[in-house]
């Protein structure tokens, strides 16, 4: 646990107000929690089902990054989100502000 202000040891400085954590104690708590979870899974007869994901596929469309380059648009309060500044993702209905983040987003690096 964290050492309080009342405890003192040889290595502590009087001006050191940072909390000291007992790493061994927290490691043992983590191990106990993992063992309890495994025991509960064995008892219930449930094993975590692996996530089945599709294989990677090539995009069947061209990503248009140049159409808005150098254009100026007026954005008002009533402008739809798809027409606001940036790149619009129609799958998750969000706008990404630059092309690099947009490519990362559609390639799955960011949500």
Automatic annotation (TrEMBL):
Residue ranges, compositional bias (Basic and acidic residues): 11-23, 33-55
Residues covered by the C2H2-type domain: 87-110
GO biological process: mRNA splicing, via spliceosome
Pfam families, per the entry: zf-met
One GO molecular-function entry: zinc ion binding
GO CC annotations, alphabetized: spliceosomal complex; U4/U6 x U5 tri-snRNP complex
Top-level lineage group: Eukaryota
Entry keyword set: Metal-binding, Nucleus, Zinc, Zinc-finger
Annotated InterPro entries: Snu23, Znf_C2H2_sf, Znf_C2H2_type
Chain segments carrying region Disordered: 1-55
Protein's UniProt name: C2H2-type domain-containing protein
Lineage, top ranks: Eukaryota, Metazoa, Chordata, Craniata, Vertebrata
